Amino acid sequence: MFVRTTDPLLRPNSLRALGMSSGSDPIVRLNEITYKKGKEIYGEKEPAEYVYQVKTGAVRSYKLLSDGRRQIGAFHLAGDIFGLENGTTHRFTTEAVVDTTVLLIKRQSLETVAESDAMVAKNLLGMTTTNLQHAEDHMLLLGRKTSLERVAAFLIEMDKRLTAAGVLALPMSRRDIADYLGLTLETVSRAISHLHELGVLGFVGNTQRQIILLDRHQLASLDLQP
Amino acid sequence: MFVRTTDPLLRPNSLRALGMSSGSDPIVRLNEITYKKGKEIYGEKEPAEYVYQVKTGAVRSYKLLSDGRRQIGAFHLAGDIFGLENGTTHRFTTEAVVDTTVLLIKRQSLETVAESDAMVAKNLLGMTTTNLQHAEDHMLLLGRKTSLERVAAFLIEMDKRLTAAGVLALPMSRRDIADYLGLTLETVSRAISHLHELGVLGFVGNTQRQIILLDRHQLASLDLQP
DNA sequence: CGTACGGTTGACTAGCCTCAACCAGAGTGG
DNA sequence: CCACTCTGGTTGAGGCTAGTCAACCGTACG
């Protein structure tokens, strides 16, 4: 799914790559902003002025119902691009999960480049398709998987995306995970405890924020796929 | 969301429009195929050879888990384009819900055109974004809405897309609706009965496949949005 | 005419949610 | 340095929503 490079900011689908013309001249300048934990980056229905790439930290993007129920559509980790809208307004609210630094680029400048540069247009389409694919898989999870399968799928996804040396240091809280998986935080907690009892995972020290995956194969078997 | 024209095949995002160059010369030929009710159009993971547009009828696209649980990601009705993949393989299985005629176009020919024609590339991106937007909204429904809210949202969506003279003639079965909404067919049936009791909808004759929406305003209030 | 299919409804069950208590670690201020 | 509070996490008891299983009904169809 993602190409692994030593530096996530330099992989093919980076903002830098997006802003390159086919002739590989950097066309746009990248600015940098840091958001404190919990701070909003942009709100749903706000005009989409910028496109972002996570440099360090993590971002959640979500929708709210009027009574406060929340659905997180995606977590954006180091290297991920977000805020790429086609229309002129954002369709999610995004917040920093932890202290987070992002690169940003004016949406407008991207669009004008895409007009004339097929390479850039292709990159835009590719990124949108990646998002679509993730959303499609997530619909299956939300519509048809059990709580244990959801949590297993989540751990596998995060393992692929942010593991360092076999330890998952999850930046997000149980509540965030729950709102991503369409569950309650208690159910998430119970599922993780259950996986612990099964010997699929362990914890670093006493704190349970860091998880060691002990048996990836068994974990994968708990998440039904095709 | 959708532009209304008298003929759904002629609205802006049609296959015909897709196949036009900026100079509006028709570049590609459109073929036509008819599928009997229940017949598969293409399978998940099959190579994506064609892009389709529904001429008459309805199509469901879905994913399966290995134990048979099914999640329908979308219904495609007259005028809708589907099977537009960026990679080379399909990510859903699609079947005709009823007897259905589709137009088709070789994916390859579209791609080559998009290479050189910014207009076509823009259309492709726009359609992918429309699909993404639908998937994002559906995640919220699947993750956070109650059964009654889901069914109400479904009826509202179908009302927007296929109502003729205040009557919803649903082409799909209760099972299809259930697999679209992440419910069971019994729960869908009960929700519809409940809406009937509430006086929000009625039926044409004895058959309950055709639904009259009596109170769209009340229906909308049952589906929490922002 | 009999059968198959799709839909409805009822009785019961189960999985997840709600409410609540409790606990550990990180800050904070006296 | 210690008490205090706050936050995030776990766990238990009980309730509710949606799922399961099953019977029944009407229409369509061979």
From TrEMBL, chains A, B:
Recorded superkingdom: Bacteria
UniProt xrefs under CDD domains: CAP_ED (cd00038), HTH_CRP (cd00092)
Keyword list, A-Z: DNA-binding, Nitrogen fixation, Transcription, Transcription regulation
GO cellular component: cytosol
MF terms (GO), sorted A to Z: DNA binding; DNA-binding transcription factor activity
Keyword ATP-binding: no
Residues annotated as domain HTH crp-type: 145-217
Gene3D superfamilies with a match to the protein in the record: Jelly Rolls, Winged helix-like DNA-binding domain superfamily/Winged helix DNA-binding domain
Start and end residues of each Cyclic nucleotide-binding domain: 14-113
PANTHER family: CRP FAMILY TRANSCRIPTIONAL REGULATORY PROTEIN (PTHR24567), FUMARATE AND NITRATE REDUCTION REGULATORY PROTEIN (PTHR24567:SF75)
Protein's name according to its UniProt entry: Cyclic nucleotide-binding domain-containing protein
Species name: Bradyrhizobium frederickii
Lineage: Bacteria, Pseudomonadati, Pseudomonadota, Alphaproteobacteria, Hyphomicrobiales
